[in-house]
UniProtKB/TrEMBL annotation:
Coiled-coil region(s): none
UniProt entry keywords in alphabetical sequence: Transport
Residues annotated as signal peptide: none
InterPro entries: ABC_SmlMolc_Importer (IPR050093), ABC_transporter-like_ATP-bd (IPR003439), P-loop_NTPase (IPR027417)
Protein's name in the database: Unannotated protein
Domain ABC transporter per the UniProt entry, residue ranges: 5-58
Protease in keyword set: no
MF terms (GO), sorted A to Z: ATP binding; ATP hydrolysis activity
Length: 104
């Protein structure tokens, strides 16, 4: 992927996660929820065949967690690969999963 294409994809993904206006900020200048959305956008730029989301909401406050739960389905709706969500929070799993494999 060329640098120009990567920049265009990054801008597109930042728009999808609602952070296009924060593109020039440093990580320490954004909130925890915004950092999580940036992490999702960064992962989606490369369009990997499998997207692993390991406790994606663990480090954010309750309101940010709900916002991310609401956002994630729309982000992965057109995604061509598989998404694996690892979570210890049953609410995350119930809100986002289409298939559930529980270990325990």
């Amino acid at each position: 992927m060329s640098k120009q294409e990567a920049h265009a994809r990054a801008a597109q993904e930042l728009t999808l996660v609602g952070l296009d206006e924060l593109a020039d900020r440093k990580p320490e200048q954004v909130s925890g929820g915004e950092r999580q959305r940036v992490a999702l956008a960064r992962a989606l730029v490369l369009r990997p065949p499998v997207l692993l989301l390991d406790e994606p909401f663990a480090s954010v406050d309750v309101s940010s967690r709900q916002g991310l739960r609401d956002l994630l389905p729309s982000l992965v709706q057109g995604y061509q690969g598989s998404v694996v969500l690892v979570s210890h929070d049953p609410e995350d799993v119930q809100a986002l999963a289409t298939n559930i494999l529980a270990f325990g």
